Automatic annotation (TrEMBL):
This is Simple sugar transport system ATP-binding protein. It comes from the Bacteria. SMART domains: AAA. SUPFAM superfamilies: P-loop containing nucleoside triphosphate hydrolases (SSF52540). It comes from Kaistia dalseonensis. PANTHER family: CARBOHYDRATE TRANSPORT ATP-BINDING PROTEIN MG119-RELATED, SUGAR ABC TRANSPORTER ATP-BINDING PROTEIN. The lineage of its organism: Bacteria, Pseudomonadati, Pseudomonadota, Alphaproteobacteria, Hyphomicrobiales.
Length: 246
């Protein structure tokens, strides 16, 4: 049974058709690469899964149960977490503070409660250890590499025991060594049975870490196949329109 199933998803903004009858299935522990040119509909599809947009048509099912998201918190409550391209981190805070941002652990003394920093440092350290990251809970984000920042953003998704993680261009604008670190983090999520959607323009990353790839062109799905059955040349043809469908 798919952990997430999108059926006939369409989305229009006035006269603009952003998505047209797109269907997609995600399995637990599977990594799907979502590819396409700018304006192909990738971000719109992810925002529908994340609860930012409501589809104009189509259905969303989680664990074979139909769901309707009106806001992002409802998607999160159903096990969907998002790692956005800008990561949404606070540079002046520690790794642990960013992991728990908006979900801080508190301890009470009668009517008074204060932040439980010790508990947050401990839990953040456990999450970084699970992800096999060298990131330390007390390190300031502004002093971190791109790969370490990704580890903080991904650790944040683990607080809510997510079933699905949507990642938007996680390897954009970082070094080769840091790219390898981020791909290892995706492998860690996969090993923990989490379904991952990886939006990327980087062909080597998709072929290195994904099980399946989905290609969108002008809001329509033109390919949905196993990575082992495709090639970078075919994907390039699908993105540009040189190949109609695969």
């Amino acid at each position: 049974m798919p952990v997430l199933e999108l059926s006939g998803i369409s989305k229009h903004f006035g006269a603009i058709q952003a998505l047209n009858d797109v269907s997609l299935e995600l399995e637990a522990g599977g990594v799907v690469g979502l590819m396409g040119d700018n304006g192909a509909g990738k971000s719109t599809l992810v925002k529908i899964m994340a609860g930012n947009f409501r589809p104009s048509h189509g259905t969303i099912r989680i664990d074979n149960r139909e769901v309707h998201f009106h806001k992002p918190i409802e998607a999160r409550d159903n096990g969907i977490e998002v790692v956005y391209q800008d990561l949404a981190l606070c540079n002046n805070l520690t790794a642990a503070a960013n992991v728990f941002l908006g979900r801080e652990i508190r301890k009470g003394f009668g009517p008074i409660s204060i932040l439980d920093y010790a508990a947050m440092y401990k839990r953040a350290g456990e999450l970084f250890k699970e992800l096999k990251s060298e990131t330390r809970p007390r390190d300031l984000v502004k002093q971190m590499s791109g790969g370490q920042r990704q580890a903080v953003a991904i650790a944040r998704t683990r607080l809510s025991d997510a079933k699905i993680v949507l990642m938007d261009e996680p390897t954009a604008a970082i070094s080769v060594r840091q790219v390898a670190e981020v791909l290892n983090l995706i492998h860690r999520l996969k090993d923990q049975g989490i379904a991952v959607v990886l939006i990327s323009h980087r062909m080597p990353d998709v072929f290195a870490v994904c099980d399946r790839l989905v290609v969108l062109r002008r809001g329509t799905k033109v390919a949905d196949k196993r990575v082992a059955d495709s090639s970078p040349e075919e994907v390039t043809g699908l993105i540009t329109g040189a190949i109609e469908r695969a």
